[in-house]
Design brief:
five-stranded antiparallel beta sheet; 139 residues; single chain; elongated; 11 strands; mainly beta
Length: 139
């Protein structure tokens, strides 16, 4: 009966995290659950930074999530990678998204000053969710 509970939880994890496969093993049993993947053609998004049309704030942009998972802007030693008021450069790592133990770096595609960090460290994010508000450096 306990195996059924584990299987139900694994299926739930598989669905919620949009995974194609999940494995579990303990001393009593081992299980691998796979689901068929349906590939849909989705238009490519060229940039993860999108200008937000604000009246007098055309130099304000939002760095958005490129993945689902938990957003972290502290390194493994607890040192913040970014802070409000900090100036960032194009290509600078500003955090990462952890999905099922896999970390994906988030790099800035704009140079500017961080106005606001919109999520708490470790907070869950979805694809396209705004992470950081940046005031662009005007060339």
């Amino acid at each position: 009966m306990e195996e059924n509970i584990v299987i139900d939880k694994l299926i739930d994890i598989l669905s919620k995290n949009e995974l194609s496969e999940v494995n579990f093993q303990d001393k009593d049993f081992k299980i691998k659950i796979k689901k068929d993947i349906i590939i849909e053609e989705v238009p490519q998004i060229e940039e993860s930074v999108v200008d937000t049309p604000l009246d007098d704030n055309s130099d304000i942009v939002f760095i958005k999530s490129t993945n689902i998972g938990k957003f972290f802007f502290y390194d493994k030693n607890g040192v913040p990678l970014i802070a409000v008021g900090q100036t960032i450069k194009v290509g600078q790592t500003i955090g990462y998204i952890s999905t099922v133990g896999i970390k994906t770096s988030i790099k800035s595609e704009v140079a500017g000053s961080i106005e606001q960090i919109l999520l708490k460290n470790g907070e869950v994010t979805d694809y396209g969710k705004e992470l950081i508000k940046v005031k662009k450096i005007v060339d």
